[in-house]
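To the team - zinc ion complex, inputs and output below.
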Amino acid sequence: MAMPAPEGGIILGIETSCDETSTAVVRGGGEVLSLIISSQVDLHAGYGGVVPELASRAHLEALLPAVAETLKDAGVGYGDLDAVAVTRGPGLIGALLVGVTAAKAIAFALEIPLLAVNHLEAHIYANFLHFPRLEPPLVAFVVSGGHTLLVHMPAHRTYHVLGETMDDAAGEAYDKVARFLGLGYPGGPVIDRLSRKGDPEAVVFPRAMMHDGTYNFSLSGLKTAVINHVRKLRQRGEEIPVEDIAASFQAAVVDVQVEKITRAARETEVSRVVLAGGVAANRYLREKLGESLEGKGTELYFPPLELCADNAAMIASLGWRMLREGDISHLDVDATAVLPLA
Ligand code: KG4
Ligand code: ZN
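Output:
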């Protein structure tokens, strides 16, 4: 059903892969006419993590009103839409199904193309959305609650995965350490904030695989080291210096990331690095990586906070590119919990 996609095509984006119900209208891939992100954080906070069934039900309630609202905010009607883009995976299957089913219904009823988007790819495309002149080749570091991927991107929509996590994703490690310290969910932003007042050299935690010559990561040993350290202090009846521990944990995570990203940029000879995904919001990572790349002729890009976290604008933006390439989905496309980037 490939059809010539208009340059300024108006795309409705839908994102329901995890705990944010998000809808957006984006024109021409780069102009965000409206963006709604309705977070379920309060719903899941008491459980220390996302409860999949609760997430699906909350998406079901929130999604159609959010579609109506985002169209209204954008000042467009259903008839103005050129296509609908939706996160197909990876993510929580029940949550994804809500978005995919709604998008199919809209595409079918309006007789417009359906664009089934890879969530990880869309995180990378949040950078192209925000920086219209940005172009590959580049190295992308995709870090979220479920993924840690270091990727060489020689051209648009072409990915060579250089390395990934062997165990916990970066966001997952932040969330688990925060939960152990009683800091609530999601843990990344809290640890990021507390670290500002802590000493990153207070405790020397392990930097796993830092100089192993690969682009892979491992965080489960670090997580255990933090937990053991805190247990020891508790057993001795000592006060827990939460800020120092947060800063020291974060420094151990970021040191390895900066080392591997910097080496990847050098070895692939790219002059641009982009951060993508929820953990790309991390202030220390942005700072330390910026320092490491400075003077090496390599520019660092990261999306604004709103576009780092899960959002439908990045889905619509990548959808626009897919539409132009004729990469259009059939209405029988399935949501899928597991979906590789490449
Ligand atoms: O991309 P995202 O919103 O959802 C997934 O696709 O997983 O990423 C969520 C993850 C959570 O684990 C959260 O703790 C982490 O991103 N995160 C951060 C920060 N903000 C969010 N981690 C470190 N520092 C932050 N400032
Ligand atoms: Zn995400």
